[in-house]
Amino acid sequence: FWRASRPRTCNTLLQKQAISLSEFMWKPSPLCRKNTLAEPCERCNLPCQRARDPPCSHPCPSRCHLSDCLPCKALVKRSCHCGAMTHAFECVYYNNLNAKQQLKVRSCGGPCHRKLPNCPHLCSEICHPGQCPSVDQCMKKVNVRCACNTLKKEWVCQDVLKEYRRSGRDPKVAKGQFGVGLIACGGDCVKKVNVPAAELHQRKVQENKNPAAEVTNVPKRRKKRDRGAQEPVQVSMWQQMKRYLVVIIALAGLVVLGLLIWKGVYQISDWMNEMEEQKARERLLRAGRL
């Protein structure tokens, strides 16, 4: 029998007082059918709230039910150990694995390619969890130089790290400075450093002896012309005569043009007077006929 406020298999509470349940979909038992005075059993339509087995964070998608929950088919995303790719597993498959198996299936199967913490090289192991096993066992070749970069030798990377620890220096340096200064300078280094110093000293001595010496073979700069000053222009007699002739011709042309205009205006005035006289005569003739 189910009583009021008692949790069902889905962990929800019933609000009514029920009598008996025996089958899925909350069908009443024969005892419930015979008792006609009993209040009908309440049916739960809420989503299932039972904890999953194996445990996961995804809720059951079904409504309240008596049978076991279906396996969780939700996708769980997990990145590989080196971060190169992301896996998608079914929740029920991934949660049924133990911790060791989960770490194994998360490996992408490719090279780790994570940067090693104490040297400029990358891990050459297959994608793996935790710290790279080749941190102190890197077998890559490294060029080791003296402090002035004159001498150069080829060492194994793990030997370089050991030398850094032995000398008490930090191996975490820039990629271009890794291995520099681990071997001592030789005689060639001293000669290389002393030659520029001797040349500089000799040059200073020569400058002190001839402080006022001028630099030879230097091209002199040309003086710039004064753009504002204008050179005088010589005008010939023929050019002056041409100018006067042009002025005279222009004046004569203006005089002729004025005469033509005056004559034209005079002719127009005479024509207008003739037209007025002709109109006056026509008016007189019309008046005489009337």
From TrEMBL:
Region (Disordered): 208-231
Keyword Cytoplasm annotated: no
Keywords: Membrane, Metal-binding, Repeat, Transmembrane, Transmembrane helix, Zinc, Zinc-finger
InterPro entries in alphabetical order: NFX1_fam, Znf_NFX1
Example of a GO cellular component annotation carried by this entry: nucleus
Annotated transmembrane regions: 244-262
GO MF entries: DNA-binding transcription factor activity, RNA polymerase II-specific; RNA polymerase II transcription regulatory region sequence-specific DNA binding; zinc ion binding
Residues annotated as domain NF-X1-type: 56-74, 119-140
Family: Belongs to the NFX1 family.
UniProt-recorded name of the protein: NF-X1-type domain-containing protein
